[in-house]
């Protein structure tokens, strides 16, 4: 098992590396978004929003691969894979929501309710999985710990 500090350093490095790798595709999706918004109907923007989720899925995949190297426990690895499954589920949820909207199967009120319930569900499940990972492996670096470390590093660079 790898020490918490070493894990944190590796995760920070992984996050920085993936941030750089996803920067250009994200700008590309924003550019496509602006071009399509200026030239076409708003409904055609929804698939671009969906495709814009792929950089996030890419980062989640690499996060999963890194976390799997930290602990060989089967329960830990199952939870790490389920965390990635949650990211895939988020993409599928968005795809179903967009398809339903385009096909007119959903009203605006239903759309808003589904989005709120979906967001709350994915956020709660994400925190729950993170907490369970910490229970299985006390050396696990949680999302809030990683975020705090990233902010502190950024402050250290600007000071």
Q: Strand content of the residues, in percent?
A: under 5%
Rg over CA atoms:
18 Å
Largest sheet: none
- Terminal-residue CA separation: 34 Å
Annotation field: number of helices:
6
Helix content: over 70%
Which secondary-structure class do the elements indicate? Answer: mainly alpha
What integer is the average pLDDT? Answer: 83
In one word, what is the shape?
globular
Q: Give helix and strand order, one letter per element, not per position.
A: HHHHHH
SS elements, strand count: 0
Low-confidence stretches: none
Protein described:
By secondary structure, the chain is mainly α. The chain has six helices and no strands. It has helices at residues 4-39, 45-51, 54-68, 74-103, 108-136, 143-158. The protein is globular. The mean pLDDT is 83.
Key features?
mainly alpha, 0% strand, globular, 6 helices, 159 residues
What is the strand and helix layout of this fold?
Elements: H1 4-39, H2 45-51, H3 54-68, H4 74-103, H5 108-136, H6 143-158
Summarize the structure.
This protein has six helices and no strands.
């Amino acid at each position: 098992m790898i020490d918490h500090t070493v894990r944190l350093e590796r995760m920070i490095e992984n996050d920085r590396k993936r941030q750089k790798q996803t920067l250009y595709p994200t700008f590309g999706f924003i550019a496509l978004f602006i071009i399509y918004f200026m030239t076409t109907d708003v409904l055609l923007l929804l698939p671009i929003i969906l495709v814009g989720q792929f950089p996030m899925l890419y980062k989640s995949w690499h996060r999963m691969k890194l976390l799997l190297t930290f602990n060989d426990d089967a329960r830990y690895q199952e939870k790490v894979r389920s965390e990635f499954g949650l990211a895939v589920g988020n993409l599928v949820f968005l795809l179903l929501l967009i398809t339903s909207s385009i096909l007119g199967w959903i009203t605006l009120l239903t759309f808003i309710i589904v989005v709120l319930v979906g967001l709350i569900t994915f956020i709660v499940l994400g925190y729950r999985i993170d907490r369970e990972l910490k229970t299985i492996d006390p050396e696990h670096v949680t999302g809030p710990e990683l975020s705090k470390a990233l902010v502190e590093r950024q402050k250290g660079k600007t000071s």
